[in-house]
DNA sequence: GCCAACGTTGGC
DNA sequence: GCCAACGTTGGC
């Protein structure tokens, strides 16, 4: 089981929208970056991920679960682009801001802190634990 | 709203 | 195959 982080601008696709989808989940479409796509290809059913609001909010707001393996992105005919489906698991009791991550020495190697432009990224088990702790949420 | 960082495209 | 130009992301 691996851990991931998904970035989305709240104006485009928010945690509230994702949560409202419930068990059905939603395609994580629109990714047009090879590195992000490759990460999605490695995902397995049951992998967990953080849902992060980029740009305006800059905070981790919830936990999602991968519920469909990588498949063609329905928003394009270009067969290069694939995506997984994810469903909301639970909301953080307290959002974890980017600033909090940057301030915590245990998260100094986190991709979120070091590679601002990667929209789908891996999270180590240790980082997962720390961020959940900061969010006062069960890992 | 600005701009740095980075990824992609396309001319050569 | 290199690299300049361009477009996009996302922090500030």
Automatic annotation (TrEMBL):
<dbReference type="InterPro" id="IPR015947">
    <property type="entry name" value="PUA-like_sf"/>
</dbReference>
<dbReference type="Pfam" id="PF01878">
    <property type="entry name" value="EVE"/>
</dbReference>
<protein>
    <submittedName>
        <fullName>EVE domain-containing protein</fullName>
    </submittedName>
</protein>
<dbReference type="InterPro" id="IPR052181">
    <property type="entry name" value="5hmC_binding"/>
</dbReference>
<feature type="domain" description="EVE">
    <location>
        <begin position="2"/>
        <end position="134"/>
    </location>
</feature>
<dbReference type="InterPro" id="IPR002740">
    <property type="entry name" value="EVE_domain"/>
</dbReference>
<dbReference type="InterPro" id="IPR047197">
    <property type="entry name" value="THYN1-like_EVE"/>
</dbReference>
């Amino acid at each position: 089981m691996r851990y991931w982080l998904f970035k989305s601008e709240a104006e485009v696709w928010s945690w509230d929208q994702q949560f409202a989808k419930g068990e059905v989940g939603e395609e994580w479409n629109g990714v047009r970056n090879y590195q992000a796509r490759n990460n999605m290809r490695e995902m397995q059913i049951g992998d967990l991920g953080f849902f992060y609001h980029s740009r305006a909010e800059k905070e981790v707001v919830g936990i999602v679960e991968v519920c469909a393996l990588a498949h063609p992105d329905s928003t394009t005919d270009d067969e290069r682009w694939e995506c997984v489906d994810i469903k909301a698991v639970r909301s953080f009791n307290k959002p974890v801001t980017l600033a909090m991550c940057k301030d915590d020495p245990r998260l100094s190697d986190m991709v979120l802190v070091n590679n601002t432009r990667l929209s789908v990224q891996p999270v180590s088990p240790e980082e997962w634990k720390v961020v959940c702790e900061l969010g006062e949420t069960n890992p």
